[in-house]
Design goal:
- This protein has a domain at 52-175.
- It is mainly α.
- It has helices spanning 3-69, 71-77, 85-102, 112-134, 144-158, 164-175.
- Keywords: Membrane, Transmembrane, Transmembrane helix.
- The chain crosses the membrane at residues 6-28.
């Protein structure tokens, strides 16, 4: 047997073996990539099983916070009867800030944009309360009921709840979880 025939016969064996080995390599690599993607999806689904309830609870608490600080609800919840306007003003501010501080940790579970809108809503309510208080003819001598009346009048003049936009953003974001 001469060397050309020998080399030719060797190529007949090696070349198909290399082609088969290359095909196996490509298929094995694709299989490993798909397996890795499947595991990643499983991990995300497993993670969602624990984080989704936490996120939903955070959205619920933020909605509750916004409802509790809305002027209509906070004025009903905190009685202004028998209080001076300065005392009622201070009580309103303390209650709004306490509610906010109680719900600060919820920002971990909602988007930064939604949390920014929630903070703005809190500031808008505080601004409305301060504006009403400073709009009283004699704030130091006025009654708490007069302050409550001024706040409600300001609410009617503005035409919209200061928490309405934040509620809409939070509800829309929560609906996007499903």
């Amino acid at each position: 047997m001469d060397t050309t025939t020998y080399v030719f016969d060797l190529l007949k064996i090696i070349l198909p073996a290399l082609i088969v080995a290359g095909a196996i390599y490509v298929l094995f690599r694709q299989f490993l990539e798909k397996e890795q993607q499947r595991r990643l999806i499983e991990m995300r689904m497993e993670s969602n099983k624990t984080t989704l309830p936490l996120r939903l609870q955070a959205y619920e608490r933020v909605v509750l916070f916004l409802e509790r600080i809305s002027p209509n609800n906070i004025l009903v919840r905190l009685s202004s009867a028998g209080q001076t306007a300065p005392d009622f003003h201070r009580l309103l501010q303390q209650e709004i800030r306490a509610e906010y501080e109680h719900n600060l940790s919820q920002q971990l579970y909602i988007s930064g944009d939604a949390w920014t809108v929630v903070k703005e809503a809190k500031e808008n309510v505080l601004t409305m309360v301060n504006r009403a208080y400073h709009g009283l003819p004699t704030p130091g001598q006025a009654r708490g009921t007069e302050l409550a009346k001024r706040i409600l009048e300001g609410l009617m003049m503005d035409g919209a709840e200061p928490t309405a936009q934040a509620l809409a953003v939070v509800k829309s974001e929560a609906a996007g979880l499903f």
